[in-house]
């Protein structure tokens, strides 16, 4: 029999521990078939020992030998009749052929030109060898870990390149040999953010909307998938969704949501792209009946009582209310009600502020056993929204006014709106003060509704100077007046 690259080869004998039998492994030749059989010969000259194992159909076989003495082993491919047989050879001392497996759960992470490699520690192993190279490069860089270390950090690497990694234990008395792990490919770092292309909602039914997001990613060739995190801005609930597609559809309630997207691969994740999905703003016919479906009343300037249709108790038990100052992050309260249709919002160590507007959003949930959200998709419906003040005040600023189209007997007065934070109550309308001498007993007053910001003064005297002031009006009364708007009517 001959040694041949086409025949049986790479004979190797080892065991996992002292108690295990010694097992020899080999590779079949390129001409082997499913009827190929092998002969394994074991010889230990010192003990005058020889054992022949015939008709082995597999490419491994366990043997019994004297542990302290050198052994020689041959495997012969004996099944070919029309060609020369092939053989392979191995020599070693059995007690030194204990071979420990590589560590399990080898993990790696990349960030800022670094590769962090970690593993599960093994019994009897104090140190590990780690080798790393650029993908496809012929030479390795090998380092030895510190004693009892569970990780190794490589620094100063090129973020745009991929690397190959292998780990093995460092040989010691109890592990004279160590197997290398499989070769792991550590892909290039994901340094770019996804670019959000579409971020849209469409009404689907009362209190719900269809949400669609899609994005592009410049390094998509090295991406395994994407992580989309959707969380309520009120911090009640968030869900992490993984997808291999650069898009996502969800059915959401009228809450405000924070949405982030990042790409990931086996070595780490990209920076995340973030967008805010504002709370439902009464847009479209399907949402037009969300306002004024709940009543909000202030109770002794210390709490709000929210009530809704008593018939709701026959269909729902689980509710959630998001509440807080308008244009600020809302808080939330989730509760179960069986026979009631109201809830008091009262928070310890929290004082509701007068003259500031609060927002309330009532959600209904279909669950019976728990009222907590289980997922973001199609998990609740926004029943109604409302705004309220614990107590109203008069506006502290005035509109800015001007005039247009002055004739002999008329003039058009126009003014700006008062900022919400200066209204200090619900806007009920505007008061227009005007007169010639502008003495108290000669002033005319006209109140117009809150939906307009122009008014035509008529029946004026020609060739006369008029002074006009405009103020905003809330339930608490009239606010600060504007600067004088002065004009003169035409003579002819």
* Second-tier CATH architecture of the largest domain: Sandwich
CATH topology of the largest domain: Immunoglobulin-like
- Helix share, percent: under 10%
What does the oligomeric state look like here? single chain
* CATH H-level superfamily title of the largest domain: Immunoglobulins
Task: Characterize the biggest β-sheet.
Answer: 5 strands, antiparallel
Helix-and-strand structural type: mainly beta
Number of domains: 5
Mean pLDDT across residues: 91
What is the count of β-strands? 39
Number of helices, where a helix is a run of at least 4 consecutive DSSP H or I residues:
1
CATH domain class name of the largest domain:
Mainly Beta
Amino- and carboxy-terminal Cα gap: 129 Å
Q: What integer value in Å does the Rg equal?
A: 41 Å
- Percent strand equals over 45%
Described by the principal axes of the CA atoms, the overall outline is elongated
Stretches where pLDDT is under 50 for at least 5 consecutive residues are 283-288
Subcellular location: Membrane
GO biological process, one term: cytokine-mediated signaling pathway
GO molecular function, one term: cytokine receptor activity
Membrane topology: Single-pass type I membrane protein
